[in-house]
Amino acid sequence: MSSVNKVLFLGMDAGNKFLIQEWAADGILPTFRSLLNRGLVGDTMSLEGFYEGSTWPSFYTGVTPAQHGIHSLIQLTPGTYKFEHIRPGDFVKCDPFWNHLSRAGKRVAVFDIPLSGISEELNGIQMIEWGCHDGVYGFHTRPEHLKHDVLERFGPHPLIRSCDSFGWTQKEFPAFRNLLVQGARLKGELTKHYLKQGSWDFFGQVFSEGHCAGHQCWHLHDQRQIASITQSASVTEDPILDVYIAIDTAIGEILAHIDPETIVIFLAGHRMAHYFGLQFLLPDVLCRLKVARTPMEVTAEKPPDTVDKLEAVLTWGWRHTPKSVRARLQSLRRNLRGWIDVHQGRPSPMFFGIEPRKSECFLMHNGASVCGIRLNVAGREPEGLLQPGEEAEVFCDQLAQDLMDIVDLDTGKPAVKSVKRCSELYRGKYLDHLPDLLVEWNDEKRVGNTVTGTLDGARVRLFSDKIGVVEGANTYCRSGDHRPEGLFIAFGPGIKPGRMKRTVSIMDFAPTFADLLGVKLPLSDGAPITEILKAR
Ligand SMILES: [Zn+2]
Ligand SMILES: [Zn+2]
Fold first, then answer.
1. Separation of 83 CA from ligand 1 center, angstroms?
2. 8 A C-beta contact, residue 61 and residue 76
3. Are 205 and 111 in contact (CB under 8 A)?
4. Per residue, what are the HEC states of 141-195?
5. Rounded CA separation 60/128 (Å)
6. Does residue 358 share a domain with residue 340?
7. Which of 172, 186, 277, 305 has the fewest CB atoms inside 10 Å of its own CB, making it the most exposed?
8. What H or E segment, with its residue span, contains residue 85?
9. Cβ contact 480:243 at 8 Å
């Protein structure tokens, strides 16, 4: 079997395959139109139950979250009631495929693959978070001096802060759109430049701009919603379309300069669509079902005076602390503030207002659309309340039934689409890092928010015999969230154009890249995409 010399991977983080195909067919995205005609096109599926932290680690390791250990950027430390902000590149339990390629002597360039860290053993160059939706490390490169070269030639990515941090006034949406369009253009330039710099066996780069646009601007894209916020719509008609056009143009320019012998694989995974998660109501629901308790319930008696005094001192002291000292004291203050909040009966943000020690289950960070629930199990958790085995099993069945019984009073339809056990979906050494139950909300109805200029759909009322009415408003700014379906396009010498009938997993890409370059991955839950390999 001869080894193909060059693989170029281009990703569109959270790109929506339906929009790409629709706008390509309309001629609005000419590059995608041409690629869809000349390439092998296949549907992809991301991981069941996980989006925010798992998608890219599973892409670059080729294994499930139960093997690489990541399901979120905020994870529970097993055996404790502590959540920690993790850095995926350090936390991930398996090697990214580019390490295996490097060990086999392949020259690689890895640019902005989301949620990855700098690889010390890379045989080539790497850039992380020049422009990514999730910022964990900040912009870093390997070798380090590459950073200066990038900044000198291209500057920083125009979107220098988290897309969630914008206030989203009318003025900000067009400015935001411009930053993303400009970012996609610059990333195209940057990719072209470094692609030419070396003879790469593997070159990979991901456009992140569609991810940010999708989360923040879906309401502007969604025509039904545009009708209710005509003012905003008049200034930016569809920022998502504009960003997709910029990415289409950038990809067209990159491809115009590549060696015709290159195998090119494009992937748009875990797409974007309207926001639907009801995570903001789940703590209340669990409390009404009497399977979780708030710190307020736990400390029913009046908190001791000393706590009140400590809080007053902390607030006064902080106002009178110089800025330079504040930075150093930040984490101490956060811990103290968290302790006070719990004693005052206020919800602790890390636990979504639930006191885990006194609850049979609690919430884990897993994104809003599929919520993760952890059972408080004796022997596994420090103060477990549920006995493992039958008691825990019966508890899960009952909880799943109670959640499935809840209806959205607005539509009369079930609010929850499914409740699944993680252990039935995944097997692996790090299953313990993951939630026990995955609660997927019904995505038929768009859930609005109170931030982006309209209250439309922001208020939700849930009902069941057991919970009565639980209601609340969504205060999270995002109007778009993920879905698991994606699309890939592969083309190059010998790849037969056409539409694949089967759906591949995002875990299939790492072994495919490796196979194309004549390298075997030692561990993989995915399988090489034989339809691409046949080309060789
Ligand atoms: Zn996202
Ligand atoms: Zn973003």
1. 20
2. no
3. yes
4. EECCHHHHHHHHHHCCCCCCCCHHHCCCCCCHHHHHHHHHHHHHHHHHHHHHHHH
5. 14
6. no
7. 305
8. strand 83-85
9. no
Question: Is the CB of residue 190 less than 8 Å from the CB of residue 154?
Answer: yes
Q: Does a structural domain hold residue 76?
A: no
What is the rounded distance in angstroms from the CA atom of residue 408 to the CA atom of residue 469?
10
Nearest ligand, CA of residue 157? 2
C-alpha of residue 243 to centroid of ligand 2, in Å: 13
Is 230 in the same domain as 372?
A: no
Phi, psi values for residue 499, rounded to 5°: -105, 125
Residues 54 and 149 in one domain: yes
Q: For residue 442, what is the DSSP state?
A: P
Looking at the fold, whether 143 and 53 belong to one and the same domain comes out as yes
Instruction: Tell me whether the omega of the peptide bond preceding residue 239 falls within 30 degrees of 0, making it cis.
Output: no
Return the ligand number nearest the Cα of 216. 2
Same domain, 424 and 496: no
Q: Among 66, 91, 77, which residue's Cα sits nearest to residue 382?
A: 77
211 CA to centre of ligand 1 in angstroms: 6
The boundaries of the domain holding residue 257 are: 7-63+94-275+480-533
Strand order in the sheet with 361-364: 361-364, 370-375, 437-441, 416-421
From the CA of 134, the nearest ligand is 2
Could you say which DSSP state residue 116 is in?
Answer: -
The CA 275 to ligand 2 mean position distance, Å, reads 15
Distance CA 225, CA 240 (A): 14
Per-residue pLDDT of the chain in tens (536 residues, 90 and over written 9): 444 569 999 999 999 999 999 999 999 999 999 999 999 999 999 999 998 799 999 999 999 999 999 999 999 999 999 999 999 999 999 999 999 999 999 999 999 999 999 999 999 999 999 999 988 999 999 999 999 999 999 999 999 889 998 766 777 888 899 999 999 999 999 999 999 998 899 999 999 999 999 999 998 888 644 444 444 444 447 899 999 999 999 999 999 989 999 999 999 999 999 999 999 999 999 999 999 998 877 765 445 556 556 655 665 666 666 655 665 565 566 566 555 555 554 445 678 889 999 999 999 999 999 999 999 999 999 999 999 999 999 999 999 999 999 999 999 999 999 999 999 999 999 999 999 999 999 999 999 988 876 667 899 999 999 999 999 999 998 999 999 999 999 999 989 999 999 999 999 999 999 999 999 999 999 999 999 987 65
Question: What are the C-alpha distances in Å from 453 to residues 77, 165, 315, 475?
Answer: 38, 15, 32, 11
460 C-alpha to ligand 1 centroid (Å)? 22
The DSSP secondary-structure symbol of 191 reads H
Count of other CB atoms within 10 angstroms of residue 252:
16
For residue 14, the CA-to-ligand 1 centroid distance in Å is: 7
DSSP-assigned beta bridge partners for residue 418: 440
Record the tokens describing residue 341, joined without a space. Answer: 């909040």
Do 198 and 339 have their domain in common?
Answer: no
Same domain (yes/no): 202, 259: yes
Counted domains in the chain: 3
Gap between the Cα atoms of 459 and 70, Å rounded: 32
What is the C-alpha to C-alpha distance for residues 407 and 470, in angstroms, rounded to an integer? 10
